[in-house]
Amino acid sequence: GWGGPLRPTRLKPNEQITHMTLWCMQAAPLILGCDVTNLDDFTMALLTNDEVLDVDQDPLGKAAGRIAQEGRTEVWARPLSDDTNAVALFNRGMKSETVRVSWKQLGRTGPQPVRDLWQQKDLGERADGFETVVPPHGAVLIKVGKPSPSQDR
């Protein structure tokens, strides 16, 4: 809030991750309406994750689209300017679910490197796709593909 007593979010941590993931996948302007000096460590880490912010601010500026839906799970993807893809795996359900994306859905072939952007951790190469368990109301955000040499960090 813009003043007065602190008002903690009603969103659980998984829901906060989902919220931020969706904003970044949509290349949305990120506007924060709170006193940043009062943010807890979790929220500060959520809002300052450079790799997630890089997806939001990618120069290509192309918003994600949903490429798969099964029950309460969804997969969204967007191309990035470094010839990789940002892929979000969402679980809108009330229990953990396995969510999968195939490289064919992304227009990719052969083994692809995968990086978990929230954990800032390389997950290794995967032969034909990626799957993981996504918590209830949660999201996993990955980057798929090898960045072109001019884009390496």
How would you describe this structure to a colleague?
It is a single chain. With 153 residues, this protein is α+β, with helices and mostly antiparallel strands. Helix content is 18%, strand content 32%. The protein is built from three helices and eight strands. It has helices at residues 13-25, 41-47, 50-56; strands spanning 65-70, 73-79, 85-91, 97-102, 112-116, 121-126, 129-134, 139-144. A hairpin with a 5-residue loop joins strand 2 and strand 3. It is globular, with a radius of gyration of 16 Å. The model has no long low-confidence stretch (mean pLDDT 91).
What share of residues are in beta strands? Answer: 25-35%
Order of helices and strands: HHHEEEEEEEE
| Low confidence ranges | none
Number of strands: 8
Q: Taking strands numbered 1, 2, ... along the chain, how are they ordered across the largest sheet? A: 1-2-3-8-5-6
N- and C-termini, Cα separation: 36 Å
The major sheet is characterized as: 6 strands, antiparallel
What is the average per-residue confidence, as pLDDT, rounded to a whole number?
Answer: 91
Helicity range: 10-25%
Please identify the oligomeric state.
single chain
Q: What is the radius of gyration computed over CA atoms, rounded to a whole number of angstroms? A: 16 Å
Q: Indicate the overall shape.
A: globular
Helix and strand content put the structural class at alpha+beta
Distinct helical segment count = 3
